[in-house]
Amino acid sequence: MFGYRRELRKYEEVDEDELLASLSLEEIQELEQEMDDLDPDTNVPIGLRQRDQTAKTPEGVFNREALLKYWEEENKKLIQEERQDAKLSQDVDILKELRNSLKPSVKPRDEVAKLPPPQKSGRDDLMAAIRGTSIFSLKRVRFTVCL
């Protein structure tokens, strides 16, 4: 036989009744708690299987109406906060749209590069001559009249 089974043999001859009779009240309660934790009763619903571990005394009487009123007030507050948050987010969205609509429309450099160069006219030549020369050079500018 294996060593584990040999170890268990010594427990086969133990008298459980005698062992339980020698336990104190506290030890029996502790044993009962351990047994409940190890092997809970399957006939008891899951929510009731956990034993009550609180030693706290009740602070007052349970008032269902007061509790319902409190929940209703809290829900009203939450709904108001959600509405305010929704309104603020709408206002922020509107402001963003306004800012975006007021931004100057700048064409990308690629689009500007694709545009044909502007054509020069006689007026442009005259204005360039006026800006860049003295009164003596103005007399020499040719101006063509188009009819």
From TrEMBL:
Spans annotated as Disordered: 34-55, 103-124
Main location as per UniProt: cytoplasm
Domain called WH2: residue spans: 122-141
Any Gene Ontology CC annotation: striated muscle thin filament
One Pfam family in the UniProt entry: Tropomodulin
Subcellular locations according to the entry: Cytoplasm
PANTHER family assigned: LEIOMODIN-2, TROPOMODULIN
Keywords: Cytoplasm
Entry keyword Metal-binding: no
Species this protein is from: Neogobius melanostomus (round goby)
The protein's name in its UniProt record: WH2 domain-containing protein
GO MF annotation list: actin binding; tropomyosin binding
UniProt record, GO biological process: actin filament organization; muscle contraction; myofibril assembly; pointed-end actin filament capping
Residues in the signal sequence: none
